[in-house]
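Model it.
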Amino acid sequence: MADKSPRQSAAKKSGKSIKEKRADKRATEAGKNAATLAEKLTQPKKR
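Modeled.
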C-alpha cells in the first residue's frame, strides 16, 4: 500500500502570504493617494 502522508515539498508555501499581499496593496494605495492629495492642494480651483 502506498504512503499517503503529505510530502515536505507539497507542504511548502509558495509566494507571499495574504497578510504580505494586503500590506503591499495598502502601501501602494497610500502612495497614490498622497500623490493625488498633493496635486489637489497645489492646483488652483476652477470656478
